[in-house]
Design a protein that fits this description.
It is a single chain. The chain has 11 helices and 8 strands. By secondary structure, it is α+β, with helices and mostly antiparallel strands. About 45% of the residues lie in helices and about 15% in strands. Strands 1, 2, 3, 4, 5, 6, 7 and 8 form an 8-stranded mixed β-sheet that branches. Pfam families: Acyl-CoA_dh_2, Acyl-CoA_dh_N. InterPro entries: Acyl-CoA_dehydrogenase (IPR050741), Acyl-CoA_DH_C (IPR013107), Acyl-CoA_Oxase/DH_mid-dom_sf (IPR046373), AcylCo_DH-like_C (IPR036250), AcylCoA_DH/ox_N (IPR013786), AcylCoA_DH/ox_N_sf (IPR037069), AcylCoA_DH/oxidase_NM_dom_sf (IPR009100). Belongs to the HpaH/HsaA monooxygenase family.
Length: about 400
């Protein structure tokens, strides 16, 4: 397994310690988060104050700029305590990597307060018209996790000339990611879901909002405004890995809960505990092996590319594909481990107070994400076979 690069400082260890120290607080609030359909304020406040919400932001903008392996471990730790909290930490934390591409003037404006929280949606659901000094933007974006706790929200918009999109030389529409003040956005109450209910991933909309060019990221992104190894690492590979880390944390919680439950539960008709049932031993063994293998492959693939980014080596398409494959594999492996724990837990796992049912719902919400859904393996496999393929978000 690749080890964390020597480029890391004491800050990453401190951030991981901070995440671990927040576990008791996070574990107090999952049911409140599900009731309110958003991250509870005490948890959001703690994640902001700890620096976790800005862990991948450039240092020049007040961020911590931690390495990918540290970010994954922080996300995994929080997701073990509560999947929704880990998901929000992932969304807001990794958004900082995008912020490396904001023009310097806009970054200075956005982060006059260093602990400002940003998030957004990459789907191109907006429309922008270029005007003097910037763009006028309208649109509605779905699944904006943690939107209630953000100071800034971004949403990709296609640039129009009249009624038609402005086309780039490569035959694709020109697009930008304008960063809106949260006060300019209307949050629409849409997040009524089965899994990750506590993430508050509602829609948000803007109507004819002016955004200066200094607060717009141009797509496709080229050289970052703030250089550094973190921003050399393939962005969508990093995001996919971060999504997968939430699933790993959820699965760890589920397997631990099954182990605890098995020691105390006496199934109907049995004179001994659930732990003595052979099928329970088989489920625990398979879940542990599946989860451990998925996690190890992800950390190995991410670590190898991180080492290349730190050393200045080129990162091949094959290496990118391995990171993406490892992320998909981690998410699906985590879901398999949760399924095993949920099934072995029996009817007890159905009750609202059981962590197993929440892990089951949350982890299957993760596997629906476009970056780690099962179908992503087709593109990854084609790259590894050396076949021509389109590479969206690669």
């Amino acid at each position: 397994m690749a080890t964390m690069s020597s480029a890391s400082s004491a800050a990453p260890a401190s951030l991981l310690d901070a995440a671990r120290s927040l576990v008791p607080l996070v574990q107090e609030h999952p049911q409140r988060g599900e009731r309110e359909r958003r991250l509870p304020d005490p948890v959001a406040r703690a994640l902001r104050e700890s620096g976790i919400f800005r862990m991948c932001r450039p240092r020049a903008l007040g961020g911590l700029e931690v390495d990918p392996l540290t970010a994954l471990q922080v996300i995994e730790e929080l997701s073990r305590a509560d999947g929704a909290a880990g998901w929000c930490a992932m969304i807001c934390g990794t958004t900082g990597a995008f912020e490396a591409y904001i023009p310097a003037e806009g970054g200075k404006e956005m982060h006059a307060s260093p602990d400002a929280v940003t998030a957004g949606v990459f789907a191109p659901s907006g429309r922008a018209v270029e005007v003097e000094g910037g763009y006028r933007v309208a649109g509605r974006w779905a699944m904006a996790s943690a939107c209630h706790h953000c100071d800034w929200l971004g949403g990709t918009a296609v640039v129009y000339d009249g009624s038609a999109p402005r086309m780039l030389p490569g035959g694709v529409p020109e697009a930008i990611v304008p960063m809106f003040r949260a006060s300019e956005c209307e949050i629409l109450d849409t997040w009524s879901v089965s899994g990750l209910a506590g993430t508050g991933s509602h829609d948000f909309a803007v109507v004819d909002v002016f955004v200066p060019s200094s607060r717009c990221i141009r797509l496709p992104m080229t050289a970052p405004t703030h250089p550094g190894p973190l921003f050399v690492f393939p962005l969508f590979g990093f995001l996919a890995s971060a999504v997968a880390a939430t699933a790993l944390g959820m699965a760890r919680a589920a397997v631990d809960e099954l182990t605890r439950l098995a020691a105390t539960k006496r199934p109907s008709g049995m004179t001994t505990s659930l732990a003595t049932r052979p099928s329970t031993a088989l489920a625990v063994a398979e879940a542990e092996a599946t989860l451990g293998a998925a996690r190890a492959y992800l950390l190995e693939a991410v670590g190898a590319v991180w080492d290349a980014a730190v050393s200045g080596s080129s990162i091949s398409l094959r290496e990118r594909a391995r990171v993406r494959l490892a992320a998909t594999n981690a998410a699906l492996g985590a879901a398999r481990a949760v399924d095993l724990a949920f099934t072995a837990g029996g009817a007890t796992a159905l009750y609202a107070e059981s962590p197993l049912q929440r892990s089951f719902r949350d982890v299957h919400a993760v596997t629906q994400h476009a970056l780690v859904a099962p179908h992503t393996r087709e593109v990854q496999g084609r790259v590894l076979l050396g076949l021509d393929t389109e590479l969206p978000m690669f």
